[in-house]
Amino acid sequence: MNYRILTFFLLILSLTACKKEHKSKQKAEVNDLQMIKKRGELVVLTLYSSTSYFIYRGQEMGFQYEVSQQFAKSLGLKIKVKVAKNIPELVKKLKNGEGDMIAYSLPFTKAMKDSLTYCGLEVITHQVIVQRDDSKIEPLTDVTQLLGKDVYVKPGKYYDRLVNLDKELGGGIKIHKDDNDSITMEDLIDQVSEGKIHYTVCDNDLARLNATYYSNIDISLAVSFDQRSSWAVRKDCPFLAKAANEWYKKSINSSDYIASTKRYFETRKIMVHSPILSIQTGKISRYDKLFKKYAKMIDWDWRLLASLAYNESNFDPRAVSWAGAKGLMQLMPATARAMGMPSGHEEDPEESVKAAVKYIQSINKSLCMIPNKNERQNFILAAYNAGVGHIYDAMALADKYGKKKFVWYNNVEHYILLKSNEEFFTDPVCRNGYFRGIETYNFVRDINSRYKVYKKKIKH
């Protein structure tokens, strides 16, 4: 009798367990990909950086962003981005259900693997020496050649790796830890390019991206082992993980994926410029009449507008930037449409100048709080390059740290540089995240410098 009761009891337990397991699977499926598709939106979590996600000229960009957008599109979904401050917060937000997927190169670790499911886009990274590609200097081809060399690094994983490498080699590398908050990783790479320092260390993906800005750097020497990283989802999202894995296998050789890879890691970002067309005849370019006509609408010297065009396109109306900006004045497609440029007229010089001047008028209104007209011109140039949002952030930082928020040179320009530094772009006063500020810093200075030359050599 007791045996029969025990058997009956075990059978009931077994059926209950099966039923719970079945319900659990049904719940996972409902809460997983089906629920996301029903919602019509994939919420991705990421971090601000030059290789993942950033805002450029008012548009969302970044390699991880573009590729995750391609994945969402394959599922018939729109994408919504939520940004965390760091990796721990990224993981916390995912576990709390604030997003569906981490679209960031999340390093493979045992702790992460136990709590998350790695899936989708997979990247192999390692750290490299960034050195100047100079025919006068023999390049380093082996880590043992670092002995006796001065290497400048930022605190954290780059410094730690170099210290460990120094121990492995028995000592001798002259390691300089640059913990100055005003110096970013991009600054160190820039210093290598200019020959101010000889060596620094960074991840190979960051090095590859910066090699598109600096043609004279060598990033071929690895100083660490390969590190796997990929996207990730919660453990209760097996269908989403499966879809991401299947998509990645199919799409790695697709034209869209290849185009995104080239855009960020291969396409040259710096345009080669030509000299003044004819000093003797007083011509800067073939488009001087357009600059003279439309500069009056914004009360600018036409030579300043010409200097802006030179910097943007080298006076080439067919120019297309790495980011997709087009035409003589290099307006982003969305901006051009908003300024009334007809579709298909991007290469029309007059349409480009006319739309650019309307855009400058719009920026001027956004920066009307700057009382000095000449000073405001500097801010307008900066916003033309970066987008108004990043300029607002730099102004807020300048104000917070005791600088003049309505003065560009040596004040706000200093903080646009720091927008590539995590400590600053995650500051509560910043609303637009990471930005490669050195580009805008040089942009304003280059245009004004060229404008001075134009004023000196070309009659008004």
From TrEMBL:
SMART domains according to UniProt: PBPb
Alphabetic keyword roster: Cell outer membrane, Membrane, Signal
Keyword Metal-binding attributed: no
Signal peptide annotation: none
Protein name: Lytic transglycosylase F
Family that this chain belongs to: Belongs to the transglycosylase Slt family.
Solute-binding protein family 3/N-terminal domain boundaries: 44-268
InterPro entries: Lysozyme-like_dom_sf (IPR023346), Solute-binding_3/MltF_N (IPR001638), Transglyc_AS (IPR000189), Transglycosylase_SLT_dom_1 (IPR008258)
Pfam families in UniProt: SBP_bac_3, SLT
CDD domains in UniProt: MLTF-like, PBP2_YfhD_N
Places the protein is found: Cell outer membrane
Topology class, membrane: Peripheral membrane protein
Keyword presence, Signal: yes
PANTHER family on file: MEMBRANE-BOUND LYTIC MUREIN TRANSGLYCOSYLASE F (PTHR35936)
Taxonomic lineage of the native organism: Bacteria, Pseudomonadati, Bacteroidota, Bacteroidia, Bacteroidales
